Amino acid sequence: MAQPFQAETADNLEEIEKQFAVKAVVQAETYWGLLEKIPGSTLKLTKHDDDIFEQLLADFPEFKEPANVAEIKESEMKSVTGKKRWREFCEKFNQIEDYNFGTLLRTNAKDYYTQEGTIFAVRIQFYAIEIARNRYGLNDWVKLK
Question: What is the C-alpha separation between 100 and 125, in angstroms, rounded?
Answer without folding.
Answer: 9
